[in-house]
Amino acid sequence: MKPANNLLSRYTAYMANRFCGGSSRKLIAAWWYSILALTAALSISSLTIQGRRPFAECFASVWSALLLCVLSVGGTMIMRKFHNSLAVGFFLGGVVASSQLFFMLFLFFMGYGKDLRNHGMSAKAETIMSFFSLVQSILLGSFAAILAAHRSEILDKPGNAVMEMMDEMHGISSNQTTDTAGVDGPSYEAPSVRA
C-alpha cells in the first residue's frame, strides 16, 4: 500500500506543480470548487427533468441532487473549520460513497436511455444526466484520492490551514489575515493559573 500512496503523492504533486504553482492545498481547493460547480449543474439538470419522466428517474435525480447539496455544505464546513481526523475521515467516506452512487446513477441513466431509444423515444435528458453522473463520479473519486494523499496538510497544521488554503486560492496572502484579537494566527499559550 505504501508504493501506491507514494505514486499517488508524486502524481498529485506533479499536478500541483503544473496547475497550482506547487501548492497541493490549492489543488485540493480547486478540485473541490469544480465539484461544487458540477453539483450546481446536476441540481439544475435534475430539476428540469421533473414532470416529463417516470417517478423512479425523477426520484433518483432529485435524491442525488439533495445528497450532493448536503455533501457540499458539510464538505465546505469541514474544509474550512473542522480539521480533526474524525471529521476529515467522515468526509472522505462520504465522498467515496457519493462517488460510487454517481457511478451507479451513470449506469442507471445509460440503461434507461437505451430502453427509451429501443422504444423509439428521445433519450437526450438521460444522456446528459448519465454524462454528468460519470463526470461527478470521477471528480469525487479523484478528490477523495487527492485528499487522502495530502490529508496531513489539513490535519497537521493547527488553526486555520484550510482557511489559508481558501485565502490563497483567492489571492489573499496569509499575513494579510488576522484573527479577531488583531494578532496574526491563533494563540496557543496555556491559560494562566490564578492562586
Structure description:
Keywords: Membrane, Transmembrane, Transmembrane helix. This protein has 195 residues and is mainly alpha-helical. The protein has one domain (14-169). It has helices spanning 2-19, 24-48, 55-80, 85-118, 124-149, 152-155, 161-169. Helix 1 packs across helix 2 and helix 2 (24-48) runs antiparallel to helix 3. The longest helix is centred in the middle third of the chain and has 34 residues, at 85-118. It is elongated.
What would a concise description of this structure say?
Helix content is 73%, strand content 0%. With 195 residues, it is mainly α.
Task: Please tally the β strands and state the result.
Answer: 0
Number of helices in the DSSP assignment: 7
- What is the 3D shape? elongated
Helix and strand content put the structural class at mainly alpha
Percent of residues in helices: over 70%
Rg calc: 21 Å
Which regions contain 5 or more consecutive residues with pLDDT less than 50? 177-183, 185-191
Report the mean per-residue pLDDT as an integer.
78
Approximately how much beta-strand content do the residues carry? under 5%
Query: What can be said about the biggest beta sheet?
Result: none
In total, the number of domains comes to 1
SSE sequence, one letter per element: HHHHHHH
For the terminal residues, how far apart are their CA atoms? 53 Å
Region (Disordered): 174-195
Transmembrane segments: 27-49, 61-79, 86-108, 128-149
Keywords: Membrane, Transmembrane, Transmembrane helix
